[in-house]
Amino acid sequence: MLDSVKDFLFGDYKIYMFFAVFGSAVAIIQLIITLVFGGFGDVDVDGDGSVEFGEHTDTGFGDFRLLSIRSLVSFFAFFGWGGVIAYEHDLKGLPAFFIALACGAFMMFLTAGLLYFLLKMQHSGNIHPEEYIGVTGSVYLTVPGGRKEIGKATVNVKGTKQEIVIIADEDIDRGESIRVLKKIDDRRFLVEKIT
Description:
Blueprint: H1 2-11, H2 14-37, E1 43-45, E2 51-53, H3 69-88, H4 94-122, E3 136-141, E4 151-157, E5 160-168, E6 177-183, E7 188-193
């Protein structure tokens, strides 16, 4: 059994050819889907559990996803092609494996890096938290006073309606108008009731 596994991995380049063909086929399918349907197919899950499709918040280097489906497909495709090319140049066994591994890892990092920079370019139209300061809106999830519990409000920023998580010094009921005073942290804003 061990000899047959060793023969399959190192005796012939069948496994490398399998990864090369399979990875390349999946990459081509991904490319066609992207061209036909557009976008990167990202799904973001917010901290409060709501899911937003196609929207991307700027999280800095947190957007660098080394282990995404695209980077893994790139790894397997180039792992396979690296192994096939190594065998074609009479490098067999462990040298072929390490060449294949290096090719796959290089392409995985390159793909993750390219996607990171493409997503950063997508962020140019995003609203930065500082732009919420001074805007007005209305509460749709009541916020208790005392800055301990959160509520939610919709505000108009740059001509778009945005949902924000809010805290306040006083109780503010659903439907009441508010003004954003300052950003508390990455998620919450301090608001006051407009009378």
